[in-house]
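anyone seen this seq b4? input:
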Amino acid sequence: MLLQNTTFLSCPKKNDADSVMRRYKRLLRPYRVEARRLQFPPPTRSVIDGPCYDIGAGGLCVECPNALDEGDLLQVRVHVPKLNKYSPGFFKAYENDAEQYVQCIATVAWIRRSGGSYLVGLQFTDIDSDKRTALQGLVDKAAAAQKTAD
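predicted toks r here
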């Protein structure tokens, strides 16, 4: 469920080099994220369960109540309504908007303390290419709409 009428700021960059190194544009949207550590046996509880700050085709930024380590692998599920509208897949017209998710494996790229919790940058390391393309299309469309509004 998306949070309505909530303003989210993009996760802060560590320094100017981060903006140069970032490969994908980010979209400021509080999409619902669930993430579990990638391990056996599978954990029963999520380490992340809440909205993201921003998302792009290469990863996302989310708040986490517990410390993680850089390099940790997570199984991630992000609810992105209308994502399939931007998918190159054949069945996109027949899929329900309420059940559109990006499911992938992500690596903890960075972590920063923020008050009583942590800001975590997740880099998608194993994601379906159609989902990555759809995310890129969604971000590009939002960026184009923002330019027109300005």
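Residues 1-9, 15-21 have pLDDT under 50 and may be disordered. The chain is about 20% helix and 35% strand. kinda curious what u guys think
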